[in-house]
Amino acid sequence: MEDVDETLGTALRRWRDRLSPADVGRIARAGRRAAGLRREELAELAGLSVDYVVRLEQGRATHPSAQVVASLARALQLEPAERDHAYRLAGLLPPRDGTISTHVPAGVQRMVARLGEFPVGVFSADWTLLSWTPAWAVLIGDPAARSPAERNLVRAVFATGPRGLASWPVLNDGDGLNRALVADLRTALVDHPADRGLTDLIAELRVGSAEFARLWDEGAVGRHVSARKVIVHPQVGEVTCDCDVLTVPGCEVRLVLYTVAAGSADAEKLEFLRVTNGLSADGSAPSLRGPFPTP
Fold it and tell me: pLDDT below 50 — which residues of the chain?
């Protein structure tokens, strides 16, 4: 039975207080009073408005959506049991077995925070972008400006229209990437047969993309390999990067990491983007973004 004095607001404050700025890739400035994360920092990390976080902690917002709770759990680096506790405090059922997890282990989050110099994106098993470094937002475009559906890489590769590659300025790698993505979705469907979002995505692409339908019906198999990718940026033009896909044993998330050779013209372009967008040398953002929409 839950503690009668425990609310989602008290739990959020407790979890926020235990995180240090370094845990989320921030620099603790001199004179900082808060030992843990500020509400403003939690709001930015979770993609929420500061006012909404305040209302949650004060108990004035009592019915957050499952998407909001999942975002807060990732931002606060909760363990699975703590994440489930947050869902219950919000009056929601925790994610059930057979569905794709959006949980990013705390160790992975700390590692990504320390890779702030590089564009890094963290993806779930269905290739939906879960979190990213400021350098990723500068190079690829701020994912916070896209809907959750538009943050799915498979949809971006195969779909046409506004959800397609127009929102991801990475030139398509062709059949190799396509086969690997289709194979990943097939594996995810075996592992998560009860995930409605995954089955809907597959059904959508089988109808909307002849290429996806062909590869799916063929039983395409493939694997991700290190590759060169060209990113077309509106400020600096083409940036050629080495792309690596990293996996974590015992965890479903994938890390996509873009790097360039030191001293190259592409490195100069990335440095220019970091400086002009206000990122420090380690890729961290010195000021908060906003405002964010209230759910």
Answer: 1-3, 286-295
Assess if CATH 3.30.450.180 describes domain 106-276: yes
Q: Side chain identity at 291, as an amino acid letter?
A: P
Q: Which of 222, 148, 150, 197 is nearest to 189 (CA)?
A: 197
If DSSP codes are grouped into helix, strand and coil, which group holds residue 236?
coil
Same fold, 8-89 and 106-276: no
Q: Identify which of 111, 188, 193, 109 has the alpha carbon closest to the alpha carbon of residue 154.
A: 188
Asked if residues 163 and 150 have their Cβ atoms less than 8 Å apart, the reply is: yes
- pLDDT score at 173: 60
Please provide the DSSP assignment of 110-178 as one string: HHHHTTTTS-EEEE-TT-BEEEE-HHHHHHH--GGGS-TGGGBHHHHHH--GGGSGGGS-B---THHHH
At residue 257, φ and ψ (nearest 5 deg) are -120, 125
In angstroms, rounded to a whole number, what is the distance separating the alpha carbons of residues 107 and 255? 13
pLDDT tens track for 121-150:
999 999 999 988 889 989 988 888 888 888
pTM: 0.73
Task: Give the model's pLDDT for residue 295.
Answer: 33
Q: What is the DSSP string of 13-79?
A: HHHHHH--GGGGT----TT---SS--HHHHHHHHT--HHHHHHHHTTS-----HHHHHHHHHHTT--
Pairing relationship of beta strands 120-123 and 227-233 according to DSSP bridges = unpaired
Q: What are the pLDDT digits (tens) for 6-39? A: 899 999 999 999 988 877 777 666 667 767 888 9
Domain spans in the chain, listed from the N-terminal domain onward: 8-89, 106-276
Could you tell me which residues come within 8 angstroms of residue 244 by beta carbon, excluding any fewer than 6 positions away? Answer: 226, 256, 257, 259
Fold of 8-89: 434 Repressor (Amino-terminal Domain) (1.10.260)
Is 237 exposed, middle or buried (CB count within 10 Å of its CB: 0-12, 13-18, 19+)? Answer: exposed
